[in-house]
Every structure is written in structure tokens, then in C-alpha cells.
Amino acid sequence: MLNFKHLIAAATVCVAAAGLAGEAAAQLKPEEFLTLRQGLMQAVRLQAGPLLGFAQGKNELPADAALRAERLSSLAKLAPMGWMKGTEALKGSETKPAAFTAAKFLPGFDALAVEANRLAEIAKSGDAAAIKAQAGVVGGLCKDCHKEFKND
User: Fold this and answer.
1) Residue 73 burial by CB count (10 A; 0-12/13-18/19+): exposed, middle or buried?
2) Beta strands in the chain, from DSSP E residues, in sequence order
3) Are 79 and 110 in contact (CB under 8 A)?
């Protein structure tokens, strides 16, 4: 089970990877990008899961909803790093190859970051109904992307 220490370690790796120059990033092996992608998506799931569960009425509003939404926004900005050319058909990938040529795939992370930012602002207010509604918007973006671009 992934604990907070592992999440911090994964975030540190992500931040370090984000700081790589384009040329240095190009030297990473495709399998390393897949590992990065999988780690980023795990971190997204850990941050978004309780918020989306709240939107669906499955659990209570997390006390740290604003922080989770801020982290989610940051992760959405980092996530495109994991979908580099050459990783389209790697064993263990859950991404459909069509995602790598779809014009709306990577910009979808921009939309996720914008809506997660909105969620973070709303969550600061403590208005549970507004948080639930905006978390639903975020969840809808996730669901639509997974439906179109994720292998089952």
C-alpha cells in the first residue's frame, strides 16, 4: 500500500523530472517515461479519489479538500511528461495508441488543471455544495478522457 512517504518520493521524482531540460528528457528510455506516467496517474488518483468520491456521495468531504485540489492541479500540469513519443505501444501501458495522435489528449490536462484550480478556490470557501458540483466537473473530465483514451 502506498503511504504518504511514497507519495512524497513520487512527487519529488516528478518535480525533478519536470526540471529536466528537453534534451536530457529525450535521453530517458521509453520505459522510464511509462514508469513516470504510471506514478503520476497514481498520484492523481490518490489526490482526486476522495474528492470525486464526495461528488458521487460515496464519502464525506475530505478535511484537506483544498490542498488535494491544489495538488491535483499541479499534477495535471506535470502529467503530459509521461506521454512522450516512443511510449505508444509499451507493454504495461493502459493508454490507447490513438491518444498519442489525438489533438485533444494532452490539452485535456490543461483543462483538468484549470478545473482543479477552480476546485481548490471553491474548497477554500468550505461550501460543500459548490465543492461537490466542481468536483463533479473534474470527475467528468477524468471519466471522459479514460473512456476515450484508456484501455480497459
Assistant:
1) buried
2) none
3) no
pLDDT tens for residues 76-103?
999 999 999 889 999 999 999 999 999 9
Contact status, residue 87 vs residue 30, Cβ threshold 8 Å: yes
Residue 52: phi and psi, rounded to 5, are -70, -35
At residue 128, the pLDDT reads: 97
- Name the 3-class secondary structure at 99: helix
Angle at 75 between CA 58 and CA 33, to 5 degrees: 115
pLDDT in tens, 26-69: 688 999 999 999 999 999 999 999 999 999 999 999 999 999 99
The size of the chain, in residues, is: 152
Q: Identify whether the C-beta of residue 69 lies closer than 8 Å to the C-beta of residue 13.
A: no
- The letter for the amino acid at 50 is P
Q: What is the DSSP letter of 101?
A: T
| Secondary structure (DSSP) of 10-69 | HHHHHHHHHTS-HHHHHTS-HHHHHHHHHHHHHHHHHHHHHHHHHHTTSSPPPTTHHHHH
Q: Are 141 and 112 in contact (CB under 8 A)?
A: yes
116 neighbors 72 (Cβ within 8 angstroms): yes
